[in-house]
Amino acid sequence: MRTLPIRLHPQQNLRRALEGLASAENIQAGFVLQGIGSLGVAMIRFAGMDQALELRGDMEILTLSGSLSPDGAHLHITVADAQGRVTGGHVAYGCTVRTTAEILVAELPGVQFSREPDAESGCKELVIRGAPPAHA
User: Fold this and answer.
1) Which CATH class is domain 2-110?
2) Origin, by domain of life (predicted)?
3) Percent of the chain with pLDDT over 70
């Protein structure tokens, strides 16, 4: 496993930056292991919803995790506002770094992720190729 620690700067788009890193580094199967930092704008989509909620103000990233593939990112985040209220869900485009974001990405060599339509869920879901078989 190769790890890539990165730092994002003010005004960078969180999701676009991570997808850009995956593309630039030719990551076929990656995970965001953890992320901390701050956002000035958070675009968070809740489970079962079509549209993201836009939050503005000083927010701390409490957790950031997810998967990266050539098809894009699937990321989850929790943020706390200046009053300590916590909100979490899917990272949508438009999350903007306020001061910094410190993120650790791991690449899984010999593995390829893709997101393909799944008849059971009705969504594009993770497909893993090249991984050893799972143990029951």
Assistant:
1) alpha beta
2) Bacteria
3) 96
